[in-house]
Specification:
Elements: H1 2-43, E1 48-49, E2 63-81, E3 85-96, E4 101-110, E5 122-129, H2 154-161, E6 167-174, H3 194-230
Parallel strand pairs: 1-2, 4-6
Antiparallel strand pairs: 2-3, 2-5, 3-4, 5-6
Protein name: SURF1-like protein
Organism: Tropicimonas sediminicola
Subcellular location: Cell membrane; Membrane
């Protein structure tokens, strides 16, 4: 029996650890879903006037309402959506009725509409404040010279267009160009991979138990052969 104890103990302890990791990921999933629900509720709340000095952390996703006029100059951010396909986000400077200059994400245009003339327009915007974090080591560098942008870096875009480092992502707008489709904020772009991680850990636990059972079977078969040889 001693030959069975070590592999059995290793198998049970290893499986227990893997199962615990899976349960932990399910707990993380519940926590993350609660956060995403809170974010969606915040995004869809009643809009408020643009704060005087919005904070990138405390005011992220804050719904706001602003009126003013767009600049004719645009920044084009490459984007791909499941419903609309590949195209560009249209980012412009926006001068509010109070005289503040901020960034406005007007929404999506198809690739063949990227360079279509869109004159300045007077708009009333309902949208959300955001400071996107879209850059990782695989993201190409933005190219202002050719007006190809790959990440909405608010500080950089604000310098380029001479605005405050504040970005409003339009949810609805009056008087807007019908060729621009708003891409309103929601929580779908926030990673939530905990269920996949849980399935992976539980799957590894099953594999571990299967390997343990196989090892015990091999030991048992060896013992039977030894007993048969002695007989």
């Amino acid at each position: 029996m001693r030959r069975y104890l070590a592999p059995l103990a290793i198998g049970l302890v290893g499986a227990a650890i893997l199962i615990w990791l899976g349960v932990w990921q399910l707990q993380r999933l519940e926590w993350k879903e609660a956060i995403l629900e809170e974010i969606d509720q915040r995004i869809a709340a009643d809009p408020v006037p643009l704060p005087a000095t919005p904070d990138p952390e405390q005011d992220r996703f804050l719904p706001v309402e602003v009126s003013g006029r767009t600049d004719p100059r645009e920044l084009h951010v490459l984007v791909s959506t499941r419903q609309l396909g590949a195209g560009f986000r249209i980012i412009t400077g926006f001068t509010t009725e109070e005289g503040r200059r901020i960034l406005l994400d007007r929404g999506f245009v198809a690739a063949d509409r990227k360079d279509a003339g869109r004159p300045a327009a007077t708009l009333m915007i309902t949208g959300n404040l955001h400071w996107p974090d879209e850059r990782d080591r695989y993201t190409p560098e933005n190219d202002p010279a050719t007006n190809y942008w790959y990440a909405r870096e608010v500080d950089v875009m604000a310098d380029e267009l001479g605005t405050e480092p504040i970005l409003v992502i339009a949810r609805m707008s009056s008087g807007s160009d019908a060729s621009i489709t708003p891409l309103p904020m929601d929580s779908s772009g926030i990673p939530n991979d905990h269920l996949g991680y849980a399935v992976t850990w539980f799957g590894l636990a099953l594999v571990w138990l299967g390997m343990t059972a196989l090892q015990l079977w091999r030991i048992s078969r060896g013992d039977r052969r030894s007993a048969g040889g002695k007989g």
